[in-house]
Amino acid sequence: MASTTANADATPVNTDGVEGEDGVRRRDFINIAAVSAAGVGGLVTLLPLVSQMAPSKDVLAESTTELDISSLEAGQSIKAVFRKQPVFVRHLTQAEIDAANAVDISSLRDPETLEERTKAGHHNLLLVMGVCTHLGCVPLGAAEGENKGEFGGYFCPCHGSHYDTAARIRKGPAPANLVVPDYEFTSDTTIVIG
Questions:
Q1: Whole-prediction pTM value?
Q2: Is residue 159 among the annotated active site residues?
Q3: Among residues 122, 123, 134, 159, which one is catalytic?
Q4: In the CATH scheme, what is the code of domain 59-193?
Q5: Per residue in 115-155, pLDDT tens?
């Protein structure tokens, strides 16, 4: 049994050195130090594993696409690639704009106006992902001479989805309009997607 002595304050002190004046035992300190070392070791081990899951430089380079649309005239379209998927940019004619604006929005499966699908000040330029919202096929209608479907926009021949001039679904199995990705105009003739 450990012997105790009284100090001047009449506080008992354990003479075998296991418990100090503040009540913390040497064993508690060793436990705290061991748990702390294990925690730091675990973080050091996990850091390389987590950082290797970050996107590589080639993936980050594809995270944005810059397009020059200076040569795009009314009625023309261009195809581009954004994140390994096709993108369609169409310079709408006044007739295509009028056709899109004449549609009763409440009759659409996925109701959106042409104004909601384009940027302010650029309502004649429509930019959409060239991926059918049914099963991910690439619709026709972006290149000259391709079938544009019953509504003059895009047509997916795989399952018969028809899109209008604002790339809104009008007929067929597709559940939604062609997706408008995030993009911005950095100048009057340059678009950055992503």
A1: 0.66
A2: yes
A3: 159
A4: 2.102.10.10
A5: 999 888 888 899 999 999 888 888 998 888 888 889 989 99
